[in-house]
Write a structure and sequence with these properties.
Length: 344
């Protein structure tokens, strides 16, 4: 073999070895990329799974806030009228309620019908957000086996605890809202900040929780019955319609019935709560639930006192609760259609 042939053979062997080496490098790189992608995908899935519960909580908070704000804004004028009756000795009637609404509008203007609504929004947005979110968490707590729905008693307890949780956290805001509703802009209680500062300096911080006990005692049946009734109606609807979800109108009807039953059961304690909250800026002064209820009954009787304004509540309550439950479900549905909440 000549020198030229030897060189050519040697170069061919080198090229073959280089080609084989490049194949090995490419294969190794491909394996590394594949492993990296799989690892990244696995990590991404794990991350999404880890953050999913927090996204669910955030979604419930947002949906609850929207639901509460819309519902309370719709019935704000009726709500203020109800509080004016509850905190005075006026005898309630539908005609008298219309007169009160008309007088407020004529003497103080349209926006006076919404006086206290800023405090209502400041309270109801966190209240509804906490209530609906805590209700979801209590349902999970009472349903460790992930059954399609809770049994009746845990269903009631979950609603009651949700109401107690939200009321406890937001009660000072409810207290200030009640005081705004029974005063007018020309009084010394001109706004939420003024009410807060005057109450704090003149009556002390403990005053912000005056009336808290009747509130909690009232919210136990109210929250329990409301959530229990609404969830039960939805459950029965799914069972009778092959798993189909109720329409918006059906949700409104379910919520209206839930609100009617819940508010009727807890209404006397609501009257007691309002009297205790506004004591000091009205002509009344109360110290205990018993004495407050006793004075209310002696003043107007059981029906005319403890149930004063209930017929108005039968109008505004079902509307508010129906809108609230419906808006919560529909807002959650809308949020789930977004990329951020898609996996929640």
């Amino acid at each position: 073999m000549t020198t030229s042939e030897n060189n050519s053979h040697h170069e061919g062997a080198i090229h073959h070895e280089d080609h084989h080496h490049l194949l090995e490098v490419a294969t190794s790189a491909k394996h590394l990329v594949s492993t990296s992608v799989q690892s990244s995908s696995s990590h991404h899935k794990h991350f999404k799974a880890a953050e999913s519960p927090w996204r669910k909580i955030l979604m419930s908070l947002v949906a609850g806030a929207v639901a509460g704000a819309v519902a309370k804004t719709v019935i704000a004028p009726l709500d203020r009228t109800k509080i004016l009756f509850q905190t005075s000795d006026m005898q309630f009637s539908a005609r008298k309620a219309i007169e009160v609404l008309t007088n407020v509008y004529r003497k103080q203007g349209f926006f006076a019908l919404y006086r206290g609504n800023s405090a209502t929004m400041a309270r109801i947005i966190p209240y509804a957000a906490i209530q609906f979110t805590s209700h979801e968490q209590y349902k999970k707590l009472f349903n460790p086996n992930n059954a399609p729905s809770l049994q009746p008693f845990p269903r009631f307890v979950a609603g009651s605890l949700a109401g107690v949780t939200a009321s406890t956290i937001t009660y000072p805001l409810d207290f200030m809202r009640a005081r705004m509703a029974v005063t007018h802009r020309k009084s010394n209680y001109k706004g939420l900040t003024t009410i807060f500062m005057k109450t704090l300096t003149e009556e002390g911080p403990a005053t912000f929780y005056r009336g808290y006990l009747p509130t909690v005692l009232g919210v136990i049946p109210y929250g329990g019955i409301s959530f229990f009734t609404y969830e039960t109606f939805k459950k029965r609807h799914r069972e009778r319609n092959n798993g189909e979800h109720p329409t918006a109108f059906q949700r409104l009807a379910f919520g209206a019935i839930a609100g009617l039953l819940g508010q009727s059961a807890s209404y006397p304690l609501d009257v007691v709560r309002r009297r205790m909250q506004t004591a000091g800026i009205t002509k009344y002064s109360y110290d205990t639930i018993k004495n407050t209820a006793k004075d209310i009954v002696s003043e107007g009787g059981v029906v005319g006192g403890l149930y004063k304004g209930l017929s108005m509540n039968w109008i505004k309550g079902p509307i508010a609760v129906g809108i609230s439950f419906t808006m919560y479900d529909l807002t959650k549905k809308a949020l789930k259609s977004t990329d951020f909440f898609a996996d929640s």
